[in-house]
Specification:
The protein is of the alpha+beta class. The chain has 2 helices and 4 strands. Helices cover 28% and strands 21% of the residues.
Length: 111
């Protein structure tokens, strides 16, 4: 369960949501969060069957697919800009870099 009371210091909105990314030892999870309305607009992870379907892929390829799904969701939701990018304290590893390259190509990384 997500505790949205913890997000008061962030500034995601419906049109400019906050991108929160968590990278464990094996997986990558990404969420677009509208902090003002306390809603998750998009959730994607390397565990989702729709993203990591057959044939098996490397974790880097699946992380890229998460990025592609996020870009697609942004298009569907009419989102043109992300307010902030929260890595949850993680430095950029291979999966995080693969994910960020895909979303940066479409202009979805805040400057």
């Amino acid at each position: 369960m997500i505790c949205f009371d913890c997000f008061n210091q962030f500034n995601g909105t419906l049109t400019r949501p906050r991108l929160s990314v968590f990278c464990s030892n094996k997986q990558l999870y990404a969420m677009l969060v509208d902090d003002q309305n306390k809603k998750c607009l998009f959730y994607g992870s390397t565990l989702q069957k729709s993203i990591c379907n057959n044939p098996p892929h490397t974790t880097i390829e699946v992380a890229q697919r998460v990025g592609e799904e996020l870009v697609k969701a942004c298009g569907d939701l009419g989102i043109k800009e992300i307010s902030s990018h929260d890595r949850n304290g993680f430095v950029s590893g291979e999966r995080m870099q693969a994910f960020e390259i895909v979303i940066a190509k479409h202009g979805f990384l805040p400057r």
